[in-house]
Design brief:
single chain, Peroxisomal Thiolase, Chain A, domain 1, 2 domains, twelve-stranded mixed sheet, two-stranded parallel ribbon, 10 helices, globular
Protein backbone atom coordinates (compact mmCIF):
# COMPACT_ATOMS: atom_id res chain seq x y z
CA UNK A 1 0.00 0.00 0.00
CA UNK A 2 1.09 3.58 -0.60
CA UNK A 3 2.39 5.45 2.42
CA UNK A 4 3.01 9.19 2.42
CA UNK A 5 4.60 10.87 -0.58
CA UNK A 6 7.24 8.38 -1.65
CA UNK A 7 6.91 5.12 0.28
CA UNK A 8 5.28 1.71 0.11
CA UNK A 9 4.43 -0.74 2.89
CA UNK A 10 4.19 -4.27 1.55
CA UNK A 11 1.15 -6.31 2.54
CA UNK A 12 3.00 -9.34 1.15
CA UNK A 13 6.67 -8.84 2.06
CA UNK A 14 9.42 -10.13 -0.17
CA UNK A 15 11.45 -12.61 1.88
CA UNK A 16 15.19 -13.03 1.54
CA UNK A 17 15.67 -16.56 0.24
CA UNK A 18 19.46 -16.51 -0.14
CA UNK A 19 22.39 -14.23 -0.82
CA UNK A 20 26.04 -14.29 -1.83
CA UNK A 21 28.97 -11.92 -2.18
CA UNK A 22 32.17 -12.01 -4.21
CA UNK A 23 34.94 -9.46 -3.70
CA UNK A 24 38.54 -8.67 -4.53
CA UNK A 25 41.77 -9.04 -2.61
CA UNK A 26 41.71 -5.57 -1.04
CA UNK A 27 38.15 -6.04 0.21
CA UNK A 28 39.20 -9.41 1.61
CA UNK A 29 41.80 -7.64 3.74
CA UNK A 30 39.14 -5.45 5.36
CA UNK A 31 36.76 -5.88 8.32
CA UNK A 32 34.12 -7.81 6.34
CA UNK A 33 36.44 -10.59 5.20
CA UNK A 34 34.78 -13.21 7.40
CA UNK A 35 31.36 -12.57 5.86
CA UNK A 36 32.34 -12.46 2.18
CA UNK A 37 31.63 -15.76 0.43
CA UNK A 38 34.41 -15.61 -2.15
CA UNK A 39 37.55 -13.46 -1.98
CA UNK A 40 39.23 -13.55 -5.38
CA UNK A 41 42.99 -13.00 -5.28
CA UNK A 42 43.16 -12.43 -9.04
CA UNK A 43 41.66 -9.00 -9.77
CA UNK A 44 41.27 -10.10 -13.41
CA UNK A 45 39.08 -13.06 -12.38
CA UNK A 46 40.91 -15.11 -14.98
CA UNK A 47 39.72 -12.87 -17.83
CA UNK A 48 41.50 -10.79 -20.48
CA UNK A 49 40.38 -7.30 -19.40
CA UNK A 50 38.86 -5.47 -16.46
CA UNK A 51 35.35 -5.28 -17.90
CA UNK A 52 35.24 -9.01 -18.50
CA UNK A 53 36.51 -9.48 -14.96
CA UNK A 54 33.54 -7.58 -13.54
CA UNK A 55 31.15 -9.62 -15.66
CA UNK A 56 32.73 -12.84 -14.40
CA UNK A 57 32.36 -11.61 -10.83
CA UNK A 58 28.64 -10.95 -11.39
CA UNK A 59 28.09 -14.41 -12.84
CA UNK A 60 29.91 -16.01 -9.92
CA UNK A 61 27.87 -14.11 -7.31
CA UNK A 62 24.57 -14.88 -9.05
CA UNK A 63 25.36 -18.58 -9.40
CA UNK A 64 26.46 -18.80 -5.77
CA UNK A 65 23.33 -17.08 -4.45
CA UNK A 66 21.18 -19.55 -6.36
CA UNK A 67 23.29 -22.48 -5.23
CA UNK A 68 23.15 -21.46 -1.55
CA UNK A 69 19.35 -21.26 -1.75
CA UNK A 70 19.09 -24.54 -3.67
CA UNK A 71 17.28 -22.58 -6.39
CA UNK A 72 17.47 -23.31 -10.10
CA UNK A 73 17.66 -20.33 -12.42
CA UNK A 74 14.46 -21.53 -14.12
CA UNK A 75 12.65 -20.81 -10.84
CA UNK A 76 13.61 -17.11 -10.98
CA UNK A 77 11.09 -14.97 -12.82
CA UNK A 78 13.08 -11.73 -13.16
CA UNK A 79 16.57 -10.39 -12.69
CA UNK A 80 17.09 -6.80 -11.46
CA UNK A 81 20.75 -5.89 -11.90
CA UNK A 82 23.16 -3.09 -12.70
CA UNK A 83 26.68 -1.72 -12.54
CA UNK A 84 28.58 1.54 -13.10
CA UNK A 85 29.71 1.05 -16.67
CA UNK A 86 28.31 2.69 -19.81
CA UNK A 87 25.41 0.73 -21.27
CA UNK A 88 25.61 -1.65 -18.28
CA UNK A 89 28.12 -3.84 -20.07
CA UNK A 90 29.23 -5.68 -16.92
CA UNK A 91 25.63 -6.79 -16.38
CA UNK A 92 24.68 -7.49 -19.99
CA UNK A 93 27.72 -9.69 -20.59
CA UNK A 94 27.86 -11.11 -17.08
CA UNK A 95 24.26 -12.33 -16.80
CA UNK A 96 23.50 -13.42 -20.36
CA UNK A 97 24.11 -17.09 -19.56
CA UNK A 98 21.61 -17.00 -16.69
CA UNK A 99 18.79 -16.74 -19.25
CA UNK A 100 16.59 -14.89 -16.75
CA UNK A 101 14.40 -12.01 -18.00
CA UNK A 102 16.37 -8.87 -17.15
CA UNK A 103 15.57 -5.38 -15.93
CA UNK A 104 18.89 -3.55 -16.35
CA UNK A 105 19.21 -0.76 -13.78
CA UNK A 106 21.39 2.29 -13.38
CA UNK A 107 21.27 4.22 -10.14
CA UNK A 108 25.04 4.65 -9.82
CA UNK A 109 26.06 3.41 -6.36
CA UNK A 110 22.40 3.28 -5.25
CA UNK A 111 21.66 0.46 -7.70
CA UNK A 112 21.38 -2.30 -5.06
CA UNK A 113 18.68 -0.32 -3.27
CA UNK A 114 16.84 0.22 -6.54
CA UNK A 115 17.09 -3.47 -7.40
CA UNK A 116 15.79 -4.60 -4.00
CA UNK A 117 12.94 -2.07 -4.10
CA UNK A 118 11.74 -3.02 -7.56
CA UNK A 119 12.20 -6.71 -6.90
CA UNK A 120 10.18 -6.50 -3.68
CA UNK A 121 7.42 -4.57 -5.47
CA UNK A 122 7.24 -7.33 -8.06
CA UNK A 123 6.96 -10.09 -5.45
CA UNK A 124 4.43 -8.13 -3.37
CA UNK A 125 2.22 -7.57 -6.41
CA UNK A 126 2.24 -11.27 -7.27
CA UNK A 127 4.10 -10.87 -10.54
CA UNK A 128 6.91 -13.20 -9.46
CA UNK A 129 7.48 -15.97 -6.95
CA UNK A 130 11.23 -15.31 -6.98
CA UNK A 131 13.49 -12.55 -8.28
CA UNK A 132 17.24 -12.15 -8.27
CA UNK A 133 18.74 -8.75 -7.43
CA UNK A 134 22.40 -7.81 -7.76
CA UNK A 135 24.85 -4.96 -8.29
CA UNK A 136 28.59 -4.82 -8.90
CA UNK A 137 31.56 -2.52 -9.32
CA UNK A 138 35.26 -3.02 -10.00
CA UNK A 139 38.00 -0.64 -8.98
CA UNK A 140 39.81 -0.80 -12.31
CA UNK A 141 36.75 -0.45 -14.56
CA UNK A 142 35.42 2.52 -12.59
CA UNK A 143 38.81 4.25 -12.48
CA UNK A 144 39.20 3.85 -16.23
CA UNK A 145 35.73 5.19 -16.98
CA UNK A 146 35.29 7.97 -14.42
CA UNK A 147 38.78 9.05 -13.39
CA UNK A 148 42.13 8.06 -14.88
CA UNK A 149 43.72 4.90 -16.30
CA UNK A 150 45.56 3.00 -13.56
CA UNK A 151 48.91 3.51 -15.26
CA UNK A 152 48.51 7.28 -15.04
CA UNK A 153 49.49 7.21 -11.37
CA UNK A 154 47.51 10.32 -10.46
CA UNK A 155 47.35 11.68 -6.92
CA UNK A 156 44.01 11.21 -5.18
CA UNK A 157 42.31 13.89 -3.09
CA UNK A 158 41.67 13.04 0.57
CA UNK A 159 37.92 13.40 -0.07
CA UNK A 160 38.04 10.71 -2.78
CA UNK A 161 36.74 7.20 -2.16
CA UNK A 162 38.03 3.82 -3.31
CA UNK A 163 35.74 1.91 -5.68
CA UNK A 164 34.97 -1.51 -4.26
CA UNK A 165 35.72 -4.57 -6.37
CA UNK A 166 32.73 -6.65 -5.41
CA UNK A 167 29.28 -7.96 -6.20
CA UNK A 168 26.35 -8.81 -3.96
CA UNK A 169 23.41 -10.93 -5.09
CA UNK A 170 20.14 -11.46 -3.18
CA UNK A 171 17.22 -13.73 -4.07
CA UNK A 172 13.81 -12.45 -2.93
CA UNK A 173 10.69 -14.61 -2.88
CA UNK A 174 7.23 -15.13 -1.43
CA UNK A 175 8.13 -18.10 0.79
CA UNK A 176 8.67 -17.09 4.42
CA UNK A 177 12.18 -16.80 5.84
CA UNK A 178 13.76 -14.96 8.77
CA UNK A 179 14.33 -11.66 6.89
CA UNK A 180 12.06 -9.69 4.57
CA UNK A 181 11.77 -6.41 2.70
CA UNK A 182 8.69 -4.88 4.33
CA UNK A 183 8.74 -1.40 2.81
CA UNK A 184 10.63 1.08 0.67
CA UNK A 185 11.07 4.80 0.21
CA UNK A 186 12.01 5.76 -3.33
CA UNK A 187 14.48 8.60 -3.53
CA UNK A 188 14.29 11.64 -5.74
CA UNK A 189 17.07 13.54 -7.46
CA UNK A 190 18.72 16.13 -5.24
CA UNK A 191 21.24 18.56 -6.73
CA UNK A 192 22.84 21.18 -4.48
CA UNK A 193 25.41 22.27 -7.04
CA UNK A 194 28.39 20.09 -6.08
CA UNK A 195 30.80 19.73 -9.02
CA UNK A 196 33.81 17.97 -7.47
CA UNK A 197 33.93 14.40 -8.80
CA UNK A 198 36.59 13.60 -6.20
CA UNK A 199 34.13 14.35 -3.40
CA UNK A 200 31.07 12.28 -4.20
CA UNK A 201 30.14 12.06 -0.52
CA UNK A 202 29.25 15.75 -0.64
CA UNK A 203 27.03 15.16 -3.68
CA UNK A 204 25.23 12.16 -2.19
CA UNK A 205 24.73 13.32 1.41
CA UNK A 206 21.82 15.70 0.57
CA UNK A 207 20.05 12.86 -1.26
CA UNK A 208 20.51 10.51 1.70
CA UNK A 209 19.18 13.21 4.02
CA UNK A 210 16.15 13.77 1.80
CA UNK A 211 15.25 10.07 1.57
CA UNK A 212 15.78 9.27 5.26
CA UNK A 213 13.73 12.29 6.28
CA UNK A 214 11.01 11.31 3.82
CA UNK A 215 10.98 7.79 5.23
CA UNK A 216 10.53 9.15 8.75
CA UNK A 217 7.69 11.40 7.65
CA UNK A 218 5.91 8.82 5.48
CA UNK A 219 5.95 6.10 8.15
CA UNK A 220 5.54 8.53 11.11
CA UNK A 221 8.71 7.24 12.78
CA UNK A 222 12.10 8.53 13.87
CA UNK A 223 15.56 7.03 14.32
CA UNK A 224 14.42 4.98 17.32
CA UNK A 225 12.30 2.83 14.98
CA UNK A 226 15.44 1.26 13.48
CA UNK A 227 18.34 -0.62 14.98
CA UNK A 228 20.57 0.83 12.28
CA UNK A 229 20.27 3.37 9.48
CA UNK A 230 22.87 2.32 6.91
CA UNK A 231 23.83 4.50 3.95
CA UNK A 232 25.67 3.24 0.91
CA UNK A 233 28.99 4.97 0.38
CA UNK A 234 29.08 8.48 1.76
CA UNK A 235 32.48 7.92 3.31
CA UNK A 236 33.89 10.06 6.10
CA UNK A 237 33.18 13.37 4.36
CA UNK A 238 29.62 12.50 3.35
CA UNK A 239 28.76 10.98 6.71
CA UNK A 240 29.59 14.20 8.54
CA UNK A 241 27.48 16.18 6.08
CA UNK A 242 24.54 13.78 6.45
CA UNK A 243 24.59 13.91 10.24
CA UNK A 244 24.64 17.72 10.11
CA UNK A 245 21.73 17.78 7.63
CA UNK A 246 19.69 15.43 9.81
CA UNK A 247 20.31 17.47 12.96
CA UNK A 248 19.22 20.62 11.11
CA UNK A 249 15.91 18.85 10.39
CA UNK A 250 15.42 17.89 14.02
CA UNK A 251 16.63 14.28 13.73
CA UNK A 252 19.75 13.02 15.49
CA UNK A 253 20.76 9.69 13.93
CA UNK A 254 24.34 9.75 15.21
CA UNK A 255 23.99 6.66 17.39
CA UNK A 256 22.14 4.66 14.73
CA UNK A 257 24.03 5.57 11.56
CA UNK A 258 26.47 3.34 9.69
CA UNK A 259 27.94 3.79 6.24
CA UNK A 260 28.94 0.87 4.04
CA UNK A 261 31.87 2.89 2.72
CA UNK A 262 33.24 3.10 6.25
CA UNK A 263 32.52 -0.55 7.08
CA UNK A 264 34.10 -2.37 4.17
CA UNK A 265 37.65 -1.06 4.62
CA UNK A 266 39.90 -0.35 7.59
CA UNK A 267 40.79 3.30 6.94
CA UNK A 268 43.55 3.14 9.52
CA UNK A 269 45.33 0.27 7.79
CA UNK A 270 44.13 0.53 4.18
CA UNK A 271 44.81 3.63 2.07
CA UNK A 272 41.29 4.35 0.86
CA UNK A 273 41.12 8.02 1.91
CA UNK A 274 37.45 8.86 2.65
CA UNK A 275 36.25 5.23 2.42
CA UNK A 276 34.70 2.85 -0.09
CA UNK A 277 32.28 3.49 -2.95
CA UNK A 278 30.78 1.81 -6.01
CA UNK A 279 27.68 -0.36 -6.54
CA UNK A 280 29.53 -3.25 -4.96
CA UNK A 281 30.15 -1.33 -1.73
CA UNK A 282 26.60 -1.47 -0.38
CA UNK A 283 25.84 -4.78 -2.12
CA UNK A 284 28.77 -6.62 -0.51
CA UNK A 285 28.18 -5.00 2.89
CA UNK A 286 24.52 -6.02 2.71
CA UNK A 287 25.43 -9.64 2.06
CA UNK A 288 28.50 -9.86 4.31
CA UNK A 289 27.25 -8.00 7.40
CA UNK A 290 23.68 -6.63 7.32
CA UNK A 291 21.70 -9.72 6.30
CA UNK A 292 23.67 -12.09 8.57
CA UNK A 293 23.06 -9.84 11.59
CA UNK A 294 19.34 -9.69 10.82
CA UNK A 295 19.19 -13.43 10.26
CA UNK A 296 20.90 -14.09 13.61
CA UNK A 297 18.57 -11.70 15.40
CA UNK A 298 21.27 -9.20 16.40
CA UNK A 299 19.21 -6.54 14.62
CA UNK A 300 15.43 -6.52 14.21
CA UNK A 301 14.87 -3.68 11.76
CA UNK A 302 17.28 -1.82 9.49
CA UNK A 303 16.86 1.06 7.05
CA UNK A 304 19.24 0.29 4.19
CA UNK A 305 19.89 3.40 2.09
CA UNK A 306 22.31 2.93 -0.85
CA UNK A 307 23.41 6.27 -2.29
CA UNK A 308 24.41 7.27 -5.82
CA UNK A 309 26.16 10.17 -7.55
CA UNK A 310 24.63 10.49 -11.01
CA UNK A 311 27.49 11.96 -12.97
CA UNK A 312 28.95 10.77 -16.26
CA UNK A 313 32.19 11.49 -18.09
CA UNK A 314 30.19 13.71 -20.45
CA UNK A 315 28.38 15.72 -17.76
CA UNK A 316 31.54 16.20 -15.72
CA UNK A 317 33.59 17.41 -18.70
CA UNK A 318 30.79 19.81 -19.60
CA UNK A 319 31.08 21.35 -16.14
CA UNK A 320 27.68 20.24 -14.88
CA UNK A 321 26.90 19.59 -11.23
CA UNK A 322 26.41 16.13 -9.75
CA UNK A 323 22.85 15.11 -8.82
CA UNK A 324 22.52 12.56 -6.04
CA UNK A 325 19.92 9.92 -5.28
CA UNK A 326 19.26 7.47 -2.44
CA UNK A 327 16.78 4.58 -2.22
CA UNK A 328 15.69 3.30 1.19
CA UNK A 329 14.76 -0.32 1.87
CA UNK A 330 13.26 -1.51 5.17
CA UNK A 331 14.69 -4.91 6.15
CA UNK A 332 13.08 -6.69 9.08
CA UNK A 333 13.60 -9.91 10.97
CA UNK A 334 10.40 -11.95 10.81
CA UNK A 335 8.84 -14.67 12.93
CA UNK A 336 8.60 -17.93 10.98
Amino acid sequence: MQVGKASLRFEHPAFVASWASVAGKKEGQGPLSGGIDVIEQDEMFGMENWEQAESAMQKQAADLALEKGNIHRREVRYLFAGDLLGQLIATSFGTVDLEIPLFGLYGACSTMGEALGLGAMCVNAGYADRVLTLASSHYATAEKQFRFPLGYGNQRAQSATWTVTGCGAVVLGKNKTRVAVTGITTGKLVDMGTKDSMNMGAAMAPAAWNTIRQNFEDFSVDASYYDRIITGDLGAVGQKALLDFMKSSGYDITGKHMDCGLEIYDRGEQDVHSGGSGCGCSAVTLCARILPKLMRGEWSRVLFVPTGALLSTVSYNEGQSIPGIAHAVILERMEV
